[in-house]
Amino acid sequence: MASPCIAADDDDPTQPFSSPIGRDHIPRCIDEAEANRDEVHDGVENKDDDVTLSDSSDCDTETAEPNISYQNNAVTWKDDTNQTQHADGIHLDIYLDTLTNTSLFKLYCNIHHKGSKAKGQKHTIFLFIHPESVRAITLNSGRSAGPSSSKPSRQTLSFSIVQQPSLIIPKGYVLESKQRSKGLLNAVLALANVTDFSIHLNSSNITIPKQTRLESVARIFSLNFPHNRPLTNKRCANLESLYGGRGGEVANLSRDVGKAPIQADLPPSYDEPQRGQVSNKRRRIDYDVTNDKSPTVHDDLFKSIRSHLNGIESRICTHIDGMEGRINTRLDSIEDRLKQLEDKVSDALDVDRDQYILEEIGEQLDDCITGVKIESEELFKAIDDRADMTIERLEQEVNERIDQLGEEVKDSTAELVEESLKKKLVNASLRIDGSIFLDI
C-alpha cells in the first residue's frame, strides 16, 4: 500500500563515501561505509544515469532484478473535482526480487522542517506502495508532463492500486514545512489519498537494459498477470531501519499534519479620547482622486513583488537541489568504483592477508572518507551562504522600491490636490454683498 523513500535528514552526518585512491580495498571498510551511507541515502546511482540501483532500507540487491531508482520525476493525479494535478521533484525507488518473489515501491521527497533552526534542515517523507495493493501498473511513452518540460517524450508508469499508499514519517514528527517545500508536502499529502496516479520518469539517459527492467515491472503487475504476484519484501518495508536507525512510522493525517490556528490574533482595540481631552490629531480630508487610485496601485505593486520573490526563491531552491543531486551522484559513482576495486583485490590476494597491508588500506580509506565529508560540508555551507545573501539583497531592493513608490504616490497626491484647489479658486465669484462664492 505504500511507497519507499529514503531518509535523508540533514542532522545526520554527511554520507561517508570514499574515493578511488589506491588499488586495495577490504570488505570491512566497505561494509562500514555502506552502513553509514544508509542513514542518509536510499539509492546507489549507476554511473551518470538518472536510473540507479537501489540498496535502501538494508535490502539485498545482489539477487534482485530489477532494482532501480529514478530521481526528480513528475507525478500527475486527479483531485476530488476530477481536475488533473501536477507535482515535480518526486523520487521513485522500485525493488523487485524475482528469486524470492518480493517487491516494494517507494515515492519520496525531502521536506524542509518548519520547526528547525538549523540551515537546510530536511526530513525525507515516504509513500510506501505494497505489491499486494497494486491492481495494475502500465508503462507508456507519451508527451512530457508539466508546462516547464522541454523533452518531447517521457516513460510513464501509471499505478492503479486498491488501497491508498502509506505515508511514512520520522517518529514523533509533525508534518509542518517551510514555504520553500510546502508545495512538495501538499503534493505528497494529496498522493496519500489517491489510488490512481502516473509517474513521468526522468529518462534523459535511459538505456535498453533500463527499459527492459521497466517492461519487466509492468509485465509482472499487468492485468494479464493476476496470479503469483510478488509479496511485500519485509526487509525493505522495515520502518525501524529508516532515518539513521531512529525509525519511522505510518502518519496519522489527523494528528501529525500541522494545523493553522483557527482564528488569527485580533488587532488591538482603539480607545477613544475621554471627554474633555484635547486631541492634537487633525481630521484627515478625504479626496476622491486618491481614494480611487492609490489602493489599486499598492495592491498591484505588492502582488507583482510577491510573485517575483516567489519565482526567485523557487529558482534558488531548484538550483541548490540540483547541486546536491550532482554531488550525491558523484559520491555514488566513487563507491561503485571502490566496489569494483574490492572484487579485484579479493581475487588477487591470498586468504592469509598481511596485517600491515590491511591497516594501511584502512588508514587510507579513513582519510579519504574524512576528506570527502569535509569537502561536501564546505560546499553545502557555501551554497547556503550564497542563497542567504541573494535573498537579503532582493529584500533590500524591494524595500527601497516600495519606499520610492510611496514617495511618488505622496507627491502625485499633493499635486492633484493643489491643481483641484486652483481650479475652484479660479471659478470663484464675488457677490454684490461682498461675499465670495465658490462654484464647486
From TrEMBL:
The keyword Coiled coil applies. Residues 324-351 form a coiled coil. Residues 51-63 have a biased composition (Acidic residues). Residues 1-67, 261-280 are annotated as: Disordered. Keywords: Coiled coil. The keyword Coiled coil applies. Residues 22-50 have a biased composition (Basic and acidic residues). This is Uncharacterized protein. It comes from Trichoderma guizhouense. The lineage of its organism: Eukaryota, Fungi, Dikarya, Ascomycota, Pezizomycotina.
